[in-house]
Write a structure and sequence with these properties.
It is built from 12 helices and 20 strands. By secondary structure, it is α/β, with parallel strands linked by helices. It binds iron/sulfur cluster.
Length: about 450
């Protein structure tokens, strides 16, 4: 451990979902604002912070491994994040950690850092850019609008980890979004556990932004973000009725015509066991209506297969729904019993081999749908945002592609483009997930 430097250095390991990434960014921003340096190596760090994920068993393992590695390589480790909320799990596996905090705990983490690694005398706060430190590339950024969730889906432990919904004041969200845009961000990805519930906890109170009143409600927030002149993409939109109000904003081009709605299943009984809303007939009618209002709409959803008690017929009802709904992007997971989730107590767990077989059938069907839907884009002209450029061309995304989870658009003659450019391209080819294009 050679630390031949004067300024204190902190190593940082960030695991987990985009929401955890935002927590990491807040901690990193505070560290830099107080004059700490961020180090890329264990050996060169005075201590290491590990931001963990505790959502499913494999994430728990990955987080515990990361903590173990940091302890071996460095020795001084602070644990934060979702796994941190289950403090005893971390302490049992790794009794030597300095401290364990839950998610969204920047103040607590900073207090522990101060205790073990005093603040430098000459804070380099000038070096911190106004928009903070972000872990995503410069041209897109996640904006977290709330924390926690009021639902109690039986397969999920997020409410017990993160508590009930707490919405960020609308002025703060808009200020952060404006700073990001001023710093060159071209795409804002709005995230939370439940984006459409924004403001429910404060009864949709009216806040202020830019000297005018602005209601803390997802429609009003989306419209205001849409005025910033960049792409605005909404994630994790629980299918409440008022989600319908967002579709005209998409049709008018104010926000991206992209809706990430986790439906989870189509069978009424399973949805009830999951404590999720909606009947598939109603959902199909809404999807039809959304597409009539906004024909360019991209729909992404996630589904759980092999939920406890799911019969072959109920699974087939889900397949019929997928066939009928013709969603653009689908993520599917075999039900995995997360420790502490109410669904674990349900009877008739589906054997893993049946779960895997159902998962494969669902994905095969969705691949056919995706391939066909992408094929229809060949010959069209689309606006894309450039993510990467090299000698082979550029890699970009269209309004249908959220970073890291959806497809890509490969621009074969895009060598001269710059990262963060918006460019119009003609689609020349497609496969199951991606598109190929050229600049005309
Ligand atoms: S809405 Fe999402 S975060 Fe909330 S309980 Fe359900 S799955 Fe968990």
């Amino acid at each position: 451990m050679s630390k031949q430097h004067t300024l204190p250095r902190v190593g940082f390991v960030s695991l987990g979902c985009p929401k955890a990434t935002v927590d990491s960014e807040h901690i990193l921003t505070r560290l830099r604002a107080e004059g700490y340096l961020i180090s890329g190596s264990y050996q060169d760090s005075d201590l290491v912070i590990v931001n963990t994920c505790g959502f499913i068993d494999s994430a728990v393992e990955e987080s515990l491994d990361a903590i173990g590695e940091a302890l071996t390589e460095n020795g001084k480790v602070i644990v934060t994040g979702c796994l941190g909320a289950k403090g005893d799990v971390v302490r049992q596996a790794h009794p030597k950690v300095l401290a364990v905090t839950g998610p969204h705990a920047t103040d607590e983490v900073m207090a522990v850092v101060h205790q073990h690694l005093p603040k430098p005398h000459d804070p380099l706060s000038d070096l911190v850019p106004a928009q903070g430190i972000r872990l995503t590339p410069k041209h897109y950024a996640y904006v977290k609008i709330s924390e926690g969730c009021n639902h109690r889906c039986t397969f999920c432990i997020i409410p017990s980890l993160r508590g009930d919904l707490v919405s960020r004041p609308v002025g703060d969200v808009m200020q952060e979004a404006q700073s990001l845009v001023n710093a060159g961000v071209k795409e804002l990805l709005v995230i939370s556990q439940d984006t459409s519930a924004y403001g429910v906890d404060v009864k949709y109170r009216t806040g202020f932004w830019g000297g005018r009143p602005l209601r803390m409600r997802v429609t009003e927030l989306a419209a205001a973000l849409g005025e910033l002149g960049v792409w605005v993409r909404l994630h994790y939109v629980y299918p409440y009725p008022h989600v319908d109000e967002l579709i005209p904003l998409m049709a008018q081009g104010k926000i991206l015509p992209y809706l990430d709605v986790p439906f989870q299943h189509a069978n009424q009984r399973i949805l009830k066991l999951m404590k999720r809303p909606g009947s598939s007939d109603n959902v199909l009618a809404r999807i039809k209506q959304w597409r009539e209002i906004c024909p360019d709409l991209t729909l992404r959803s996630t589904f759980i297969v092999g939920f406890p008690g799911e019969t072959e017929e109920e699974f087939e009802e889900l397949l019929d729904f997928i066939e009928e709904a013709q969603l653009d992007r689908v993520g599917a997971f075999a039900y995995s019993p997360v420790e502490g989730a109410a669904a674990n107590e349900l009877p008739d767990h589906v054997p893993p081999e049946v779960q895997q077989e159902r998962l494969a059938r669902l994905m095969l069907l969705q691949e056919e749908i995706s391939e066909e839907r992408l094929r229809r884009k060949v010959g069209k002209t689309l606006t894309v945002l450039v993510d990467e450029v090299d000698e082979e061309g550029a890699i970009a995304r269209s309004s249908a592609d959220a970073p890291e989870i959806d497809g890509l658009v490969y621009i074969e003659n895009g060598q001269q483009l710059n990262v963060g450019d918006f460019v119009e391209v003609k689609i020349t080819d497609s496969d199951t997930h991606d598109l190929w294009a050229e600049i005309p």
